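Page header: ASSEMBLY MODEL / two components / 434 residues total.
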Amino acid sequence: MLEESSGPGWQSEEVKTGTTIIAVEFDGGVVLGSDSRVSAGQTVVNRVMNKLSLLHDKIYCALSGSAADAQTIAEMVNYQLDVHSIEIGEDPQVRSAATLVKNISYKYKEELSAHLIVAGWDKRGGGQVFVTLNGLLSRQPFAVGGSGSSYVYGFVDAEFRKGMSKEESQQFVVNTISLAIARDGSSGGVAYLVTIDEKGAEEKCILGNELPTFYDK
Amino acid sequence: MDRHYMDSQIKGVSTGTTILAVTFNGGVIIGSDSRASMGGSYVSSKTINKLIQVHDRIFCCISGSLADAQAVTKTAKFQISLHSIQMDSPPLVKAAASILKELCYNNKEELQAGFITAGWDKKKGPQVYTVALGGMLLNLPFAIGGSGSTYIYGYTDAKFKPDMSREECLQFATNALALAMGRDNVSGGVAHLVVITEGGVEHVVIPGDKLPKFNDE
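Prediction written out in full:
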């Protein structure tokens, strides 16, 4: 393009995690997954970002939308949850974490543009997934988000079953992320997975060349 | 993605839609939903037929502005008949697709319609061609289009296999349409499917309540 540009695109464009995030409940816990691409306009500014952020020992959130907004919300809620869990003397509920995220998203809805999916395990409700888009709070058996999610709605609608095992859920998450990365220009890199159950949280990273492939024309 | 954006922004009647065509062992299935909407909030027709027969064994399905699409297909139908008479043999699917492509490319400023052409001919058997908004012609084993197609990219990438049987292909096409209609508010109604083989052409219509249901419906 023959226009006068003031330096490379990434210096003037907002940094977004145009992304694919997913969280799934299984019997006994949850699995969260995300890609790892962070873009500023057309440039990929980070190709290995872990978008699964810890909110507490057994509660994680998946970030999408504006990178700065999402990270800030996650950090604020991490702090608020620490205080809360000291006050109640035990591990916080997943619903509490989701409510804290929702409160911030709703109050600053005009200024912020980030969507966090909150998922984790607590002893009262087992594995739970909450969506907090635009300030609503809703529990769902699974949730997808980010720009890449549009392409995989059909796939997750068809393939999700209640009562999957831990391994099946992990495979479902990895498959979904691979399909989204294949079609969405703003998703890519590696796949990060976090599996949370009664025993704790286990993080895993699956490199790009180890992701499952599907029929490619 | 451009086409998806265009479909729901078009003023006047547009077929915000889901269309697809899939080859199988011995034939090809072309399918669509049946909803025509104005501006995304009013359904102007619940039962419109978007599968146009342009020759004995060649169909095409339309997405985008309904008026543009009808004008182009009527012109193309005439040109294909003329071509077939001059050649004294049934037209090749590629020829039909090329005719559509010429019309789209030469009038690209005024038109806003995309097509998927599918059919059977003696030279190459079952084929699917897609003509995009600007006039690009591509030959593919299967193609999806329209606003609803965004949601089933993941599903079709994962589930398509070459050389399926007729029943498997019918199930694949029906599932894909059902999933897209479930997520896209400007696609819906009944599912129209046409099975084209050397032996002939068979219409299958599946009313909304007989479509396959997935998880949360």
